[in-house]
Design a protein that fits this description.
Blueprint lengths: L11 E4 L3 H12 L4 E5 L14 E2 L6 H20 L6 E2 L3 E5 L2 H16 L5 E3 L1 H5 L12 E5 L3 E3 L1 H14 L3 E4 L2 E6 L4 E6 L4 E2 L3 E4 L5 H6 L8 E11 L9 E4 L5 E6 L2 E5 L19 H11 L7 E12 L6 E4 L5 E5 L5 H16 L33
Parallel strand pairs: 1-2, 1-13, 2-9, 5-15, 13-20
Antiparallel strand pairs: 3-8, 4-8, 5-7, 6-7, 10-11, 11-12, 14-17, 14-18, 15-16, 16-17, 19-20
Helix pairs in contact: 1-5, 1-8, 2-8
The structure holds flavin-adenine dinucleotide (FAD).
């Protein structure tokens, strides 16, 4: 055998061990399939480990709501089964809105969520103020709240999911995919930087912001734009520990939630970047953040930014994920969560795994197909209105 050794072919080769790849591997292994996950850096080495950890069900698209609802159930079950493995705070998500133009659309989103069984509700400004002390109400026309939304320690959650996936037989292997060999209709093998070649029944691209780069290895493109986003850690003399993840939607989608001894926060001051594992943190980005926080909440008056990190979002044009067979008969893509992968990926992975093993998922995934984003194709999936970017 040449330097490139051919290892035994698993049923599924999942590229990427972020929340999507790990959740999918676990679900495929539960179906009895053999699964290998290839990861270039480490579990959670991409966007998942850089996220703010928010898991919410407040979306405008019914499919996003349904899958996020399932994520909440799956994460709650995992927390119970692996007690103490990760922190999950279901303190609710409070969205504050200042634009009258959005009210009708947001009330419609609440109706969609309620119809699907999510207990979200529309609040008056005064009701919102009762939840977040020190909130300046100027300009706020209303708010939405869902008590079972919250935030999680994303890395600890995904490491727990990986542990569970291994217990069902999934294998994790480190390696950077540098080449994908194809013939007219199918992927024949995946080549790693180490020189190893792996063939598999089906290859699944779960590489988030890198998904377009991986597609380029077989000469295709994916409409996923890598977009830098930052999380900031702030200290104030007053930290309220038990109030919800709060989002000042029409003020730069500025969010914050208490996280241990600091406050984790962010705002939409990002820009397009090349996908990278080492996007430098830009401290200057904290100026607009602090201005926006101070304009809405009194207890940020004495806040200081004490740290933070950068990561890369994976934006599709309508800010909904891509999920389905792409380009070849044995190639499937799940990527492009557009900043809400923690909320949607676990629920989606369960349904995608059913589709991949030839079962019929109990939810129609066709709105997420790549084809909806092709020029000239009519899509019945509307852009996600409750997007955080
Ligand atoms: C600052 C920030 C805050 C966020 N906050 C939230 C939030 O509060 N709530 C929420 O729902 N979402 C949030 N997100 C978005 C969320 O992090 C992503 O949607 C989600 O992590 C995507 O998961 P993924 O598994 O698809 O991709 P990733 O986590 O990026 O995983 C992809 C993996 O593929 C690997 N990979 C790439 N190329 C290769 C290759 N050639 N070979 C092998 N492996 C490869 C990478 O190393 C990586 O580990 C945030 C993102 C950022 C950047």
């Amino acid at each position: 055998m040449s330097a490139a050794s051919l290892t035994s072919a698993p049923d599924f080769l999942v590229i990427g061990a972020g929340i999507t790849g790990v959740a999918l591997a676990g679900q495929l292994a539960r179906h009895g399939a053999s699964v290998t996950v290839i990861e270039a850096v480490q579990v959670c080495g991409g966007s998942t480990g850089r996220s703010a950890g928010g898991i919410r069900q407040q979306f405008s698209n019914p499919l996003n709501v349904t899958l996020a609802q399932r994520t909440v159930n799956l994460v709650s079950q995992l927390r119970d089964e692996y007690a103490g493995s990760f922190e999950y705070h279901q303190v609710g998500y409070l969205f504050l809105f200042a634009s009258r133009a959005s009210v009708r659309a947001l009330q419609a989103a609440i109706a969609v969520q309620n119809e699907l069984g999510v207990a979200s509700s529309w609040l008056t400004p005064d009701e919102a103020a009762g939840m977040v002390p020190g909130l300046y109400l100027e300009g706020v026309v209303g708010a939405t709240f869902c008590p079972s939304d919250g935030f999680v320690d994303a890395e600890a959650l995904v490491l727990t999911m990986a542990r569970e996936a291994r217990s069902y037989g999934a294998r994790f292997q480190s390696g950077s995919v540098m080449g994908i060999d194809v013939d007219e209709h199918s992927v024949r093998a995946v080549r790693l930087k180490s020189g190893e070649t792996i063939s598999a029944g089906t290859v699944v691209n779960c590489t988030g912001a890198w998904a377009g780069k991986v597609a380029a290895l077989y000469g295709a493109t994916l409409p996923i734009t890598p977009w830098r986003s930052q999380c900031y850690q702030l200290e104030t003399t007053r930290i309220a520990c038990d109030h919800p993840m709060t989002i000042d939607f029409d003020n730069g989608k500025t969010y914050f939630h208490p996280s241990g001894k600091t406050i984790l926060s962010g705002t939409d001051s990002g820009h397009q970047v090349a996908p990278s594992w080492n996007v430098p943190f830009d401290f200057a980005g904290s100026d607009p953040l602090v201005r926006r926080l101070v304009s809405r909440f009194d207890y940020f008056d004495d806040a200081s930014v004490v740290g933070g990190w950068s990561g890369v979002l994976e934006l599709t044009p309508d800010e909904n994920p891509i999920c389905g067979w792409t380009h070849f008969d044995n190639l499937y893509t799940i990527a492009g969560f557009s900043g809400h992968g923690l909320s949607i990926a676990p629920g989606l992975a369960e349904r995608a795994a059913a589709e991949l093993v030839g079962a019929r998922p109990d939810v129609d995934l066709s709105p997420y197909r790549l084809e909806r984003l092709s020029a000239g194709t009519a899509s019945d999936l509307s852009a996600e209105r409750m997007s955080m970017r």
